Amino acid sequence: MKTSTLAPDAAGVARCAEILRGGGLVGLPTETVYGLAADATNAVAVARIYAAKGRPAFNPLIAHVPDLAAALRQGRFDPAALALAEAFWPGPLTLVVPVADTVSVCELARAGLSTLALRIPAHRLALEVIRAAACPVAAPSANRSGRISPTEAGHVLDELAGRVDAVLDGGPTGIGVESTIISCLADGPRLLRPGGLPRGAIEAVLGRALPDRTSTGQAHGAACPSAPVSGPLSPALLAPGLLASHYAPAAALRLAAAGAGADEGFLAFGPVPEAARRAAHILNLSPSGDLTEAAANLFGHLRALDARGIGMIAVAPVPDEGLGEAINDRLRRAAHPRR
Ligand code: TXA
Ligand code: MG
Fold first, then answer.
1. Best residue among 28, 59, 107 to mutate for probing ligand 1, ranked by most atoms within 8 Å of CB
2. For the chain, how far is it from start to end, CA to CA, in angstroms?
3. Residue with CA closest to ligand 1 atom 20
4. How far is CA 198 from CA 30, 60, 164, in A?
5. pTM here?
6. Strands across the sheet containing 312-315
7. Model pLDDT for residues 53-77, shown as the tens digit of each residue
């Protein structure tokens, strides 16, 4: 694919929105860093984000929304979350909240979690694109996995040329480090990632000290301990693969299964083998063996099989290449008994 660079004008914004609505990928400026944007409600588009980044695992993504009303449709805000949203949005603050019943952000973007990261960016172009696309926009930083976040359109091209449809050139980003991430869950506000909004400003609104994530990290998933933000080219502060509270089905999982019994579910990839035809329920990640399609279907299919109340889900082997590595990582986690 040829990556086009779009000017920061009405035509550029309209083209970005059109690409997003069509399931494509756009390098989008925000006030923190450039994001690699896709329609957060479209699991195939979200799977393309992971493929483009070369992410070794399906880290949950931040959903960017245009206003508080849109945020309230996606997540449930307790009084502390509301106070922080009202004080700092639009701005470099991401809030992790429980998902609302009306959530439209797909499960893949949430990595199957029952919580969701939300942000209203303080950037004219980002807001115009999100409004024009009329959907929540999933956007991790627009770097290849394991590299530093891009703060100029040229950096995005260095990282992702040929892997995204377009980059909207909004010039250098103002903040240059990623947003501060706060979880607002049952145990109160906690700092998951230091970032563009300083802790002190948050504590002033809360009227109390802001604890870091729990020392075990179990309740919140992601994040390394609050590493200092080191400057405009700070690397991503959250390591992928550290999520502890990952999605795990109630059913047990049997991986790399050649077949399935009549009392089992079967999660196929490619043609269903003869030895699996008697399975109680069969769903196929991708009949044609397409890994992008499989990634998009992964969490939804697991959840649907699990809802049938079967004790065991046999899972066909998935090749460990490209997105297959992330699919297998999530399958292994789902196969593990919950801690
Ligand atoms: O400034 C930013 O936040 C940029 C711009 C583009 O908005 N985005 C960004 O996204 O830094 P990303 O994907 O590079 O980092 C977001 C982090 C991930 O490492 C992920 O672990 C964490 O947010 N995260 C997302 N959803 C979460 C959840 N439900 N619980 C805990 N952590 C979550
Ligand atoms: Mg990042």
1. 59
2. 42
3. 60
4. 18, 23, 32
5. 0.81
6. 252-254, 312-315, 265-268, 281-284
7. 986 677 899 999 999 999 999 999 9
Residue in 32, 114, 129, 181 to alter for ligand 1 test, most ligand atoms within 8 A of Cβ: 181
The residue type found at 259 is G
301 closest CA partner among 258, 263, 262, 247: 247
Ligand 2 centre distance from Cα of residue 29 (Å): 14
User: What CA–CA distance (Å, rounded) separates 249 from 298?
Assistant: 12
Residue 204: count of CB within 10 angstroms of its CB: 11
196-254 residue pLDDT tens: 888 889 999 999 999 987 644 433 333 333 333 222 222 223 333 344 334 568 899 99
Residues framing ligand 1 (Cβ under 6 A): 30, 32-33, 35, 59-62, 94, 96, 113, 115-117, 119, 139-141, 178-179, 181, 192, 220-222, 236, 238
